[in-house]
Amino acid sequence: MRTLFPVDYPVNLQEIHRPPAKLYLRGAWSPAYERQPAQHRFLCVIGSRSPSSYGRHVVENLLAGLRGYPISIVSGLAIGIDSLAHEAALTNDLHCVAFPGSGLGDVVIYPPSKRPLAERILSHGGALLSEYPEDMASHP
User: Fold this and answer.
1) The whole model's pTM is what?
2) Domains of the chain by range and CATH?
């Protein structure tokens, strides 16, 4: 696990109003981002925790159309559209960056039902990012 500071963030994240003072990174930025950061894009996909069949269809087809492009799919690892986006990205060999609602330690990743997905993201060269220390559990 690495600690990142604003100078380490992708340019767009550096430019937001009040970027986080630091982030914790587990895994890796995309090799395409490392080689050519100006050419790489980050697409955030977020949505309903109870998606319709149409919503599922849109996510799956949108991400299938991005196969082969230098892009990372960013989402929250939440139940619903967020995790569907990561699943579709993995199916289409796209890099994933997930922001769980917790620290990044195996036992605290939230939601617990998405821990296997977090492991798949990491095993496929993706990344988990959090503002929270490694062992910080999620709180309401």
Assistant:
1) 0.90
2) 2-29+44-130 (3.40.50.450)
